Amino acid sequence: MQLLDIDKTRYRKHLNIVIAACIVALVAGSLGFARILIVAFPDPDGSHFHWNLTGVVLTCVIIAAVLKQLQYHPFMYEVNYVWQLKQALNKVTRKMAKVKVAAQQGDVDAMLAMQFSYSGSRQLWQLDDNTLTMEELGIWQAELDVLTKQYQVTLDLARYDSALLDKF
Asked: Quick check: keyword Membrane in the entry (predicted)?
């Protein structure tokens, strides 16, 4: 995955619309399905928990299918990019302990994975206004910069591919 410049205002606006639409669809769909099921299959005891739960599950499945279908629509470009970025960062995070050890030993791919993680996290945190941990990220970046100077390595994020993580 390559890091791209994303318009923060457009991203936030589209994300808020998607979230609001999902909430409205979940409420309306859950209640609608549950009501139809309750009318079609009434319970003499008056407990309709299983029909309510079925309504929620059915609605969640439909929402997921619609989001999957629309993920490449131009309206969803920024939202989908951030979703994919979070997945890519998650892959690196799961292997970060091994990656850090390899980077300490001079592994260029490990350093590149760390650079991707730090750059992607910085972008993600800025898009989501999560600036509380930026200072900590700066410390991690400085440590990586020391390693790149120590091993005389130049890191090019255009070379990053998640397949690099397979060896860790």
From this structure: yes
In degrees rounded to 5, what are phi and psi of residue 13? -65, -50
Taking the model in full, what pTM does it have? Answer: 0.86
Q: How far apart are CA 155 and CA 8, in angstroms?
A: 26
Give me the domain span that covers residue 161: 79-167
Picking from 57, 73, 89, the residue at the C-terminal end of a domain is: 73
> In terms of domains, do 124 and 46 share one?
no
Contact 117, 168 (CB under 8 A): no
Neighbours of 114 (CB within 10 A): 24
Q: Answer yes or no: are the C-beta atoms of 53 and 79 closer than 8 Å.
A: no
Phi, psi values for residue 148, rounded to 5°: -65, -35
User: What 8-state DSSP symbol labels residue 128?
Assistant: T
Residue with tokens 């990220």: 137
What span, in angstroms and rounded, lies between the C-alpha atoms of 82 and 92? 15
Ranges assigned E (strand) in the chain? none
Amino acid making up residue 91 = K
